[in-house]
Amino acid sequence: MDELDVSDGFDVHDYRHGLKLLKEDRETMALENRAEFACPACGESFEKLFVSRRRENTFGNPDSPICLVRTDERLLLLTH
Questions:
Q1: What does the DSSP 8-state code read for residue 18?
Q2: What share of the chain is helix, strand, coil (3-state, %, to 5)?
């Protein structure tokens, strides 16, 4: 299982072959993990990925465990 590499930032285009775009606006995007990529925080496969350039984000009540990963430019929220 390949892990998302965030060591030098995160470029979603490097993983487009395995991530399905669910929703996108100017500063955020939501994607579904179709290739069983591993989470860069815990190493386990994740279900969905939320990527944001915003400084503030609000989330509902997740039904499953989540991991957060911060790069210099983006916040990644991964649901398991």
A1: T
A2: 5, 40, 55
What distance, in Å, lies between the first and last C-alpha atoms of the chain?
15
Chain segment 17-48, per-residue pLDDT in tens = 999 999 999 999 999 999 999 999 999 999 99
**The pTM is what?**
0.90
Sort residue 72 into left (φ over 0), alpha (ψ -120 to 50) or beta. Answer: alpha
Residue 66 neighbours by CB distance under 10 Å: 16
Domain limits of the chain?
27-79
CA pair distance 80, 65, nearest whole angstrom: 5
Contact indicator for 69, 34 with CB cutoff of 8 Å: no
Q: Which residue in this structure is represented by tokens 């911060």?
A: 70
